[in-house]
């Protein structure tokens, strides 16, 4: 079997102004004396007035890894496993979608498409860094440039809920899904970068998915809202043990905000059956405010994790 071609576009994190400010803050912290390399100098300085056993970053104490080093490494490994699991689930859901579409079971195929969309949302913040691959997976018809063809999940959404070349669009998506899985298998992010991904996800929901549904044909935009919010919380829970060691007060605040946010998002309705028009503007506004508040507090917490690895931790 011929392996899928790998786009040559350089991968990078999707950045929004909130995250750019966060990165800038991290640079400022570095300039003031904090170490941002993968192995900061060991220090016994308490963190936010709380004594932390071991060092405040990658390093060792008498030849043994510090407590925070162990937590940082664990976060990197756990997030890599989470990404791989989400990418595999996306590929599996695309295969199911292709199978059901091919045998003409359009009702099940619609359910499969919503599942695939949700799995893609879990990896969107990482995958969007590769504009070539992302455009073949989840591009909106309204985003097409002159001469471009429409494909990916939203083309299949159109095919299933309206009309279009389903078999052709399905074959193209099935060919690109393993490419995304392969590229994402190389993601090994440090705690700060994991936190930035979570902030990106919350900000995308607040600024894009909630105010303007991305599901133009099915009109079931809560799929994106729910899946992306849940992915952001999973990313936070992965770095939570380290964050608690660094700043327990702010970490507890973020945890509480996520708990409130989850309840608010769930109250919008079941994502696979709630039409966009049934979500009241007041409810959208309330959830958007909670998204913004959670993202803001999380961004401040993530900035404190810069000394523990930004782009990746040692294996």
CATH topology: the name is A middle domain of Talin 1
CATH top level assignment: Mainly Alpha
Rg, alpha carbons:
21 Å
Distance between the termini: 32 Å
Question: Averaging pLDDT over every residue, what do you get?
Answer: 82
Give the overall form: globular
Class from helix and strand fractions: mainly alpha
How many separate domains? 1
Our count of helices gives: 10
Strand arrangement, major sheet: 1-2
Q: How does the major sheet shape up?
A: 2 strands, antiparallel
Share of β-strand residues = under 5%
CATH architectural label? Up-down Bundle
Overall description:
The protein is built from 10 helices and 2 strands, in the order H-E-E-H-H-H-H-H-H-H-H-H. It is an all-alpha fold and 315 residues long. The chain has one domain (17-23, 66-308): M75 peptidase, HXXE motif (A middle domain of Talin 1), CATH 1.20.1420.20. The chain has a two-stranded antiparallel ribbon with strand order 1-2. The chain is globular, with a radius of gyration of 21 Å. The model is unreliable at 1-62 (pLDDT under 50).
């Amino acid at each position: 079997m011929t392996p899928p071609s790998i786009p040559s576009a350089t991968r990078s994190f999707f950045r929004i102004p909130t995250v750019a400010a966060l990165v800038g803050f991290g640079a400022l912290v570095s300039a003031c004396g904090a170490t941002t390399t993968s192995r900061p100098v060991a220090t016994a300085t308490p963190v936010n007035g709380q004594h932390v056993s071991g060092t405040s970053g990658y390093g060792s104490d008498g030849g043994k890894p510090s407590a925070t080093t162990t937590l940082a490494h664990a976060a990197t490994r756990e997030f890599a496993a989470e990404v791989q699991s989400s990418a595999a689930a996306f590929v599996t859901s695309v295969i199911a979608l292709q199978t059901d579409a091919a045998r003409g079971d359009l009702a099940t195929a619609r359910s499969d498409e919503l599942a695939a969309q949700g799995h893609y949302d879990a990896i969107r913040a990482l995958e969007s860094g590769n504009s070539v691959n992302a455009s073949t997976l989840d591009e909106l018809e309204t985003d097409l440039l002159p001469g471009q063809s429409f494909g990916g999940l939203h083309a299949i959404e159109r095919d299933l809920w309206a009309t279009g070349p389903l078999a052709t669009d399905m074959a193209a998506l099935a060919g690109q899904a393993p490419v995304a899985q392969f590229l994402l298998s190389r993601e090994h992010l440090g705690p700060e970068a994991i936190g930035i991904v979570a902030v990106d996800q919350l900000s995308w929901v607040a600024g894009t998915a909630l105010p303007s549904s991305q599901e133009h044909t099915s009109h079931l935009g809560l799929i994106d809202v729910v899946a992306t919010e849940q992915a952001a919380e999973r990313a936070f829970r992965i770095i939570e043990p380290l964050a608690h060691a660094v700043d327990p007060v702010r970490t507890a605040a973020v945890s509480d905000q996520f708990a409130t946010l989850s309840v608010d998002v769930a109250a919008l309705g079941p994502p696979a059956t709630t039409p966009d028009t049934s979500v009241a503007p007041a409810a959208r506004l309330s959830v958007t405010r909670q998204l913004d508040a959670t993202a803001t507090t999380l961004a401040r917490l993530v900035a404190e994790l810069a000394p523990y690895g930004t782009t990746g931790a040692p294996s």
